[in-house]
């Protein structure tokens, strides 16, 4: 199988695409294919990975114009893949020579600066967590914070976020507004707002309602379709919007 891979040796813009012939084996993932390219054909190819088990989110990239976890994406399943995302420039662009029926196209995750080849700078994505102060501080002498199973279930979906930035890379708003904090940060804000163990939960709602937060989201729902863990940030953002406009 042929893989057409985006290259950017110095970061910034993608300068060209290289074509590699990969020997596909049973059960091969896109990450396995990248390893074969790096090990046997081109050691200069840069990509990011860690757990290889769809837990760390490090290997998020664009596969045939759809954001995916490389370690979770089976090469044999690619022809049938379709997330039906709303298009924006990075998803619409077709590199010269790409034959979708014969080649797998691999590109870095959109909406974040490229550092080298398939590696993107995640600083902008992570800084949103600090901007919204998405954490809680225990007080001195505080004991365990207990929670009923029913209350825990209310935040289960959002706790599953692995911060892979696939929602960020699939979002048309993030493509046009780098200042938008993005779907993952807003889903996490809702997760804290809904956590029955916390006090002063209103601060998460206030932070999410900032000008570069929920007001910029137009509920396209690309984030829901692309999320590999079923977190569904769009639903959280809708609830944040409703709470923010409640009397």
Main sheet characteristics: 5 strands, mixed
Mean pLDDT, to the nearest integer, reads 95
- Put simply, the count of helices is 10
Low-confidence stretches: none
- Radius of gyration, taken over Cα atoms and rounded to an integer in Å: 19 Å
User: Ends: how far apart?
Assistant: 58 Å
Strand order of the largest sheet: 2-1-5-3-4
Order of helices and strands: EEHEEHEEEHHHHHHHH
Mass-distribution shape = elongated
DSSP E strands, number: 7
Question: Pairing-aware structural class of the strands and helices?
Answer: alpha+beta
The percentage of residues in β strands lies in: 5-15%
Residue share in helix: 25-40%
Features:
two-stranded antiparallel sheet, 7 strands, five-stranded mixed sheet, elongated, 10 helices, 247 residues, alpha+beta
Blueprint of the fold:
Blueprint: E1 2-7, E2 16-21, H1 30-41, E3 60-63, E4 66-69, H2 89-92, E5 103-107, E6 114-116, E7 119-120, H3 123-131, H4 149-159, H5 166-169, H6 172-176, H7 183-193, H8 202-208, H9 222-226, H10 233-245
Parallel strand pairs: 1-5
Antiparallel strand pairs: 1-2, 3-4, 3-5, 6-7
Helix pairs in contact: 7-8, 7-10
